[in-house]
Amino acid sequence: MRSLTIKNIGPIKYIHFKIKKVNIFMGKQSSGKSTIAKLLSFCSWIEKDVSFHQSFKKYADDSGDLSPKFITIIENFHKMEGYFKENSEIHYKGDAISIIYKGKKGTLKWLEKGRYKYKRPKISYIPSERSVIILPEMEKLDLPNNYLRSYLYDWLDTRKSYTPNKKFSLLDTNIKYYFLEEERENRIEGKNYSIQLSQSSSGMQSLTPLLTMVDNLISNLYTNEVDYSYEFRNIRSMVSRSLMAKFVINPILKTDIDENDEKYSNYLEEALNKKNDKLIRKYSQIMENLFEYHRTNLIIEEPEQNLFPATQKKLAYKLLEYINNSEYDHTLTLTTHSPYILYAINNCILTYLVRDKAEEELSNIKSAISPDDINLFEIEQGIKKDIKKNNGLIGDNYFDKIMKEVMDDFYQSLNYL
What we know:
38% of the residues lie in helices and 21% in strands. By secondary structure, the chain is an alpha/beta fold. The longest helix has 24 residues, at 230-253. The protein starts with a strand and ends with a helix. The relative contact order is 0.13.
């Protein structure tokens, strides 16, 4: 099972967890939630990148020793300058690789049982700064290569899916989003109005890019035809030659060539003439695993941003519904300050637990989630605390603690009324 360990990075002192279908990190501001989310996103992205290229070249030497630039890449991409110390550590175990970083050195290794079974994900980091990308001038800026630029590019691709003829409904707000290609305008419309998204409320500016992107990456990505770039096709061609040599040519002809052998074409023709369908199918399956999307990994910061509590609940339900309502093995990671998000998720766990006992269809049945499929952690003073009870629900004492903090001052003053 995939796992991540972080030691002495930013505000995080020590945290280790197995990566589940849904991962929720709750905590105060500056507690380290985003540090966890960014490192999970980055390690997952490195795994995808090296699997795609079948090479460690960008990040390590031939023996797997990490490049001195490894941390610099993380610092620049995720704006984490100053987070790493002499005793910082990262231990990541994925499906295809492991990453160990300790004492400013580290290793990158293939997990041989998983290397060729790895299935390519779409990894989307949706940051708390998401509302800035709706500003018309953003697409004209020359942004550095960081997570905001990556998110902006995903947004520019996402909005093309929602046109005046295919508007997107934003939960139960009676508001719809669409994009005007010719005018390059993001617009929302209600019952009696239509305005630019950049002129709408802060809640709509936060919710719209989040929910449309989730919808696009969960729904449209797996049904629409993908227009692959020249660079993508070129890399796929090079990896294809390498895998064909390893899994077809060499086993059939008892040779030991690689993709650069000057007689590669001759060997390939001879091997294919022997028609070993089993080996061809194995090669084809590996190519499909590496170059077709098989799941979406969503990592979302503060989904509750600028939203009314009831809307936060509906958003949490919708996100879990997206994850559930698919043949693909999607994952969802959230960071949050909001007890309302936790209340909503707790409802979905409870619905799962009672789903076979209910005499009527429960309103959030499509969002039901098994407690075995979800992590629920509070991050405090640099470490994690599991806030689930043995039955899988969030402990009453945790909610009581939150409400007590809110109500103490009220009851103190109430004594004098």
